[in-house]
Amino acid sequence: MQTTMAALSINQTTHPPSTSPGSSQFEDERFQRVIDEVEDYAIILLDINGLIVSWNKGAGAIKGYTATEIIGKSHKLFYPSEDIQKGLPGELLHLAAENGRVSHEGWRVRKNGTRFWGSVTITAIHEKGKISGFLKVTRDLTDKKIAEDKYNNSVEELKLKNEELQKEEERYHKMISEISDYAIILLDSDGKIIDWNKGAEKLKGYKPEEIIGKHFRIFYPQEDRDRNLPQQLLQEALINGSARHEGYRITKEGTRFWGNVVITALHDDSGNVIGFTKVTKDLTDQKATQDKIAIFMQELQQKNEELRRSEERYHQMIAEVQDYAILLLDKAGNIQNWNTGAQLIKGYTAQEAIGKSFRMFYTAEDILRHLPEKLLKEAEETGKANTEGWRKRKDGSLFWGSIVITALHDPENKVIGFSKVTRDLTERKQAEDFLRSSKTEMEAKNIELQRLNAELTSFAYVVSHDLKEPVRKIQVFAGRQLEPDKSAEQIKEFSNKIIQTVSRMKLMMESLLSYALIANDPMSRETIDLNNILAAVEADLEVSISENNAIIRSDKLPTIQGIPFQLYQLFLNLLSNSIKFSQPEKSPEISITTTILLNGQLPEELKLQKKKYHELIFSDNGTGFDQDQATKIFDVFRRLQIINNPTGTGIGLAIVKKVVENHAGYVVAEGKLNQGAKFHVYLPAM
């Protein structure tokens, strides 16, 4: 039935009626075979509803379907979804039926989903005066379409570039003409003036009509013209592309000014010089200033030479002193110089000491109590710090040093460093110790009193600041509630703020209590399995661990001599900190590893203890901190500014440090911002 319809339609559209039925049938079949063999065109016969009834090789090559797959399907399959939604396939059949034929170009879809640019002609086929179907001829013009698009895009880009160049040129000429601080002049190849801007008129005094056409030699003093300087500058620009010069120039009124001149050669497309630009800046004031500076610099150079000689004599004197170690420190306490006395007293050579921190001369105990930093701070605040104490030599032996640290200031009275003078008074100290041996107990009490005074100062700070501020807020919000014009909603808001402030104050007071309990613990010790401490803390933090999806991994922990409550506080504060200061959208991961260290493996601060220590490393993947905060975070009420978690009281890590110190240990922090933190806890082994 399909073949008959095709033959009938082709016959109707391509041949007049034949008087010989046999001959007509033969011609139709031969014509159909010719169409089937065409490969450059998709020639498809559609019925009145747009269903496919015939398919040639060209259709298979272009669209990708076999005849078996496609005959009987709607020709809409070849159209993109956006054309189908617009009703394009049906509209084209309607136009072909109405006008006899219709042509269209657009994107079509192959079987594999790829698109091609098709040129389509649909012709209505008539039988006995009625439309019986359509002949649809398609050609793949994708390459032509791509080439046309590229050409059109190139033409459009070229048009836009030309418009932009025209606008840029107009802006450039406008900019040059309006500049008033620089004389910008255009010269022809002989040096005659052909363009003149406002800056040139302002600087040199000529109006355009007075100067255009004149030679630029007119601006030069007679002595420069006599030595042919203008022509020499043009020749230099011609050879090198540009020429620079500073010197006196002449205005219309005959006055002189000091001009900075740049002459640049202009070239055509062939590289031939067609003229020059000449840009002049009036530097008369700068020239006068430079002359004054030159005289001043000469005088200053002479004074500097005198100072240099004086400084050399001073350094030579310092270097030769043997009874005193005289050092220069930068603001951070790093050693900048080294004299003979320093080498004799401390044992280091200059190469070994320069660039290192002066902390290396202090004992572990002094480093733990931040004595080096305190001395620098005292010197910075009062101008000078005096102290005596045990110091370390290179070989590890100790000597009793008398130290004076003096702040050094720049002309603006800002501290730029310190001088440190040390004298070895070990023999005098030994004699005094022998005489004062009976006073050892009193000295110990004095040291304890100093510690208590330091803690009292911290508590006083809390009362005067951290606790006073919440009280002030409560007072303010309570007062606002009593104002007559406040609505119930506003009063409720103030009440909520008061409740939040009270909660904050409660948390701070509880933290203070924990710190006070640890500070005043009677130090009764017992054998403690740290695995049990960890289990107890994990049980108490169960809700927090669950809510934050926290993961805690731990090695088998050691058994030590310690105070249960204090060690519980150590684990509690370190683990709760790791959970509290976790990164957003990231589950906290905490690991606890343990290693036993011998004396030689310990931090410098513990090497004098002469015993083994357990190193416990608490690591997490939280917000971390900058390494320059590593010592400050253990100070009481020191809170880091963490944007996503501002709830800390600043006491937790102070408790950790206090617990470690009570157990004759040491703690050090290591961190990177947004990359987590590590706390190294060193506790004595049994």
At a glance:
Helices cover 46% and strands 24% of the residues. With 686 residues, it is α+β, with helices and mostly antiparallel strands. The protein starts with a helix and ends with a strand.
What attributes characterize this protein structure?
five-stranded antiparallel sheet, flat, single chain, Beta-Lactamase, disordered N terminus, 21 strands, alpha+beta, 24 helices, about 675 residues
CATH superfamily of the largest domain: Histidine kinase-like ATPase, C-terminal domain
**DSSP helix fraction:** 40-55%
Count of DSSP H/I helices: 24
CATH A-level architecture of the largest domain:
2-Layer Sandwich
Largest sheet: 5 strands, antiparallel
What radius of gyration results from the CA coordinates?
Answer: 47 Å
Number of strands: 21
* Mean model confidence by pLDDT: 84
Distance between the termini: 104 Å
**What name does CATH use for the topology of the largest domain?**
Heat Shock Protein 90
Shape: flat
Q: Estimate what percentage of residues fall within beta strands.
A: 15-25%
Task: Give a written overview of the molecule.
The protein has 686 residues and is α+β, with helices and mostly antiparallel strands. It folds into 5 domains: 2-142, PAS domain (Beta-Lactamase), CATH 3.30.450.20; 179-288, PAS domain (Beta-Lactamase); 319-435, Beta-Lactamase, CATH 3.30.450.20; 438-520, Orthogonal Bundle (Helix Hairpins), CATH 1.10.287; 521-684, Histidine kinase-like ATPase, C-terminal domain (Heat Shock Protein 90). The chain has 24 helices and 21 strands. The strands form 5 sheets. Strands 2-1-5-4-3 form a 5-stranded antiparallel β-sheet, with helices on both faces. A hairpin with a 5-residue loop joins strand 3 (101-109) and strand 4 (115-127). Helix 1 crosses helix 2, helix 19 runs antiparallel to helix 20 and helix 20 runs parallel beside helix 24. The radius of gyration is 47 Å and the shape is flat. Residues 1-22 have low confidence and may be disordered.
